[in-house]
Amino acid sequence: ATNIGVTASVQGDKLVLRSTGGGSESLRVQEVGDGHTAEDLGFDAGHSNSTTGTLTGDTIVYLSTASRLASLNDGLGIRHALAGGDFVVEAGDTSFTVDMGDLLSSTTRLERLNHGQGVRLGRIKITARDRTTAEVDLAGATSIGDIKQKIEAAFEGKRIAVVMNGSHLTISDNTDITNLSANQKSDFIIEDVTGYGAADLGIAGRSTTAAIQGRDVLHMDTLADAVSAINYAVGNQNAAQQRLLTAAIGPDGQGLTLSRPDGTFTLKALSSGASQALQDLGFQTGTYPYMGGGAIAIGTRIIGGLNTVLLKTLNGGAGFSGSTLQVTANGRTATLDLATARTLAEVADALNAAKDANGQSLGISAGYDATGTRLQVTNATDNTAITISGDLATSLGLAQTGSTIKSNNLQRQYVGETTRLADLNAGRGVAQGKFKITTSSGVSTTVDLSATSITTLGDVIDEINGLNLGARAGLNATGDGLLITDTAGGSGTLEIEEDGGRTAHDLNILGTATGGQLDGSYEFKLNIGGSDTLETLASRISSSTTLAQGTILNDGTGATPYRLSITALVSGARGALLIDDSQVNLGVATLTQAQDARLLYGSDPNSGVLVTSADNTFADVVPGLTLTAASVDARPVTVTVDRDLSSLLDTLSGLVDDYNSAVDRMKDVSAYDAETETAGILRGESTLYSVQSRLRRMFTGAVATSGSFTRLSQLGLKSGSEGHLSFDEDKFKAAYAQDPDAVQSFFTDAEDGVAVGMKKQIEAITTSGGLIAKRTQTFDSQRTLLEERITRLNDRLDRKRAQLERDFQAMESALAILQTQQQQITAMASQLSGLSSTSSG
After folding, report:
1. Distances 754 to 322, 531, 695 between C-alpha atoms, Å
2. Cα of 83 vs its chain's centroid, Å
3. CB neighbours (10 Å) of residue 839?
4. Which residues of the chain fall below pLDDT 50?
5. What is the distance between the alpha carbons of residues 313 and 298, in angstroms, rounded to a whole number?
6. Helix (H), strand (E), coil (C) string for 169-201
7. Which parts of 467-520 fold into alpha helices (H)?
8. How confident is the model at residue 370, as a pLDDT?
9. How far apart, in Å, are the Cα atoms of 819 and each of 629, 815, 822, 831?
10. How many C-beta atoms lie closer than 10 Å to residue 781's C-beta?
């Protein structure tokens, strides 16, 4: 586009510049200003001048330790196991497992930490919360377990505990400081004395609570992490502490090598089969023999090319079989052996360079068709037919005869187990929620993907398969979506429905299965029949795809003014649509090329920074500044940035409102109503008054800053009636206008700022060791004592009741006996009375 008679093209992993003048003209590339763009594009020393009219740059696509694992294998990444190891290495009598997970364990070697940079050991100092201190010498430690043992042994009674939490360490201080006075207490502090052990272990710091949570120190993000996982695997050492197997980036920068200097080694997959890391790193299982200078395994290419893809990621990720192409064109024949080809460009380049046995060019041109999904070979000499055969040609679909030959759709795999859900749907992501699966046997199960730990398609697959619900999840054969297969074997039909969200829709698996399968391919195939019209086709595109919207365009010409318009639903370069209409020939042409908005930041166009945005909004070009581009302009635009007080005023006003609300709430719970003689639930509670006092001092006391402001009242926050605060915005604005830096320091100073002081005070009130927690513990203790007393009293009452019941039963028995005796005496008396009457008669 420079219009100076120079064209640019790609050759392998290099850029090539050619003069279009037709002669051997001089070409020169040099930097402008202090930049290094030319060097980064491969035109550095030795590649910056040419007198032949052609200038070939240096290789600019290669692996480095900083290469992201997610970018390898054409963006499919490395499928390593989360835990349990990835593959086994046998070296002589030694066998060890390579674990590429990022979960710390007691055996994790320190050399693996910090992207393979390890830990610079020395002495660290630990200050417990009771001001007790201890220095710990970490020298000699080789594993996380050693670190744990040394730190915990420094304090008696297991007061300091080291816990491995995922990728970081958590150090806890279990010292009981309940009965200590304020001047006997301290923050929990870990610091380096010599070396950088605490910093490199991620545990250096200060905490007002009982724990320091370290930063992540074990990663699996870059190639350096993968290499370190092999080189510092547990067991990858002999008795002399020498490494048995060494992983490194290969000399061509395209793959890795594994080497053992003194013997044969064998690579084995784990029986669980949970990891594909060995394959994704470019290696195969098997034995690699000692060849005099050592044994070496040379991995295949795992990084894509400058304008091509890896052959192994085509055909849905299965790659292609065969290695032979035989081409006949223009009366000449060439046989190509592409066994060493690793990229599609290497296949195309081999076809373009094909020569017969006499060294004569075949006169053909190889490239890609208009869709970019097929390899295309054309007779560049005339329109006569060419013929291609061979096992690789059959696998590619090139085994044909014609003046132009197109392969099958090469079906590049662009979705894998490591694909992030956030990257699907052209960056719009997947709504993480629930959906319901009903299998052919009629059993329904809800799949819940709302957990924050579910971030990749692999997590989705594991979640579905882990439910054992009669449906199996995996990747489809085309490598562009999920495949759900019914395994229940019932007479019904597999169906997936939403459960209150759009998760199944975003995963493209919503609907009813065909042939027992639901294919969630993100490649939409629309079958067009004789009854279709432009309107129905536009409607089907809008309703059936998540990528584009179809409409009808009237261009206002002739008898057939109507055209089908297909517009991406995603803005920017990510909205590029690939439309293959080769079977129906709709004559689709690109009207607007998908591209990001571009903005050159800087005063000098030659050294400015080019930033891009998919939606014309540029966030954080300058920290905290968002720019929205309204139109295109080649002229420089000056943006004036001033301080915006509105958000700060809103924050302070909200702080006052929250404080006043807290004051009102405390008044309510401590109030007394004389008329109803009703007391608030916390009436007379001393802790409540302590909280009130601390909050009041927090807002009215002096702040020991070095600036010109020492009290909030100087900035418009002052005490009002009934214990409330008021905020004078005008006074704050005046103070801010006078000295904005002093106002900022007053609030944000790391040591003495108001924010730090408020945080400490609030933590002293609310945290686990704070005022409220202690009072709660007291209440809990009192409640426990009362409950124990109630239990004892209930026991006594139960025993007393049992005794009274026994006494009552005894009394009832005695009364019954007395009543019986009384009845007997009465009867006897009656009899005696009768006898007396008879005798008198």
Report:
1. 72, 73, 13
2. 17
3. 7
4. none
5. 19
6. EEEEECCCCCCCCHHHCCCEEEEECCCCHHHHC
7. 503-506
8. 82
9. 109, 6, 5, 18
10. 10
- Token digits of residue 665: 């709430």
Q: Which pLDDT score, from 0 to 100, does residue 379 have?
A: 95
pLDDT at 839: 56
Q: Is 397 left (phi over 0), alpha (psi -120 to 50) or beta?
A: left
Q: Among 352, 340, 404, which Cα is nearest to 378's?
A: 404
**Are the C-beta atoms of 32 and 73 separated by less than 8 Å?**
no
C-alpha separations of 316 from 346, 359, 408, 414, 646 in Å:
19, 36, 12, 8, 54
Q: Closest by alpha carbon to 102, among 77, 76, 83, 78?
A: 83
- Spatial distance between the Cα atoms of 224 and 234, rounded to a whole number of angstroms: 17
Host H or E run for residue 727: strand 725-727
Q: Model confidence over 295-345: pLDDT tens digits? A: 999 999 999 999 899 999 999 999 999 999 999 999 999 999 999 999 999
pLDDT at 415: 94
- Identify the CA nearest to 385 among candidates 365, 405, 403: 403
Cα(453)–Cα(457) distance, integer angstroms = 12
Neighbours of 609 (CB within 10 A): 9
Rounded alpha-carbon distances, angstroms, from residue 635 to 33, 60, 599, 653: 20, 33, 11, 42
Distances (CA, A) of 839 to 825, 827, 828, 830, 831: 21, 19, 17, 15, 13
Amino acid identity, position 310? L
d(CA 278, CA 229): 12
Ordered DSSP codes for 372-386? SSSEEEEESS-S--E
- Reading across the β-sheet that carries 404-406, which strands appear in turn? 364-368, 375-379, 404-406
Q: What are phi and psi of 182, to 5 degrees?
A: -60, -40
Nearest CA-CA partner of 701 in 688, 716, 718:
718
The pLDDT value recorded for residue 742 is: 83
Q: What is the pTM of this model?
A: 0.73
Which ranges of 270-409 does DSSP label H, i.e. alpha helix?
277-280, 344-352, 391-396
In DSSP terms, which residues pair with 725 in a beta bridge? 719
Please state, in angstroms and rounded to a whole number, the distance separating the CA atoms of residues 687 and 681: 13
| Alpha carbons 567 and 553: distance in angstroms, whole number | 11
- Burial per residue of 460-475, b for 16 or more beta-carbon CB atoms within 10 angstroms, e otherwise: bbbbbeeeebbbebeb
pLDDT score of 836: 65
Contact between residue 191 and residue 124 where contact means Cβ atoms under 8 Å apart:
yes
Q: Which of 400, 363, 367 is nearest to 380 (CA)?
A: 363
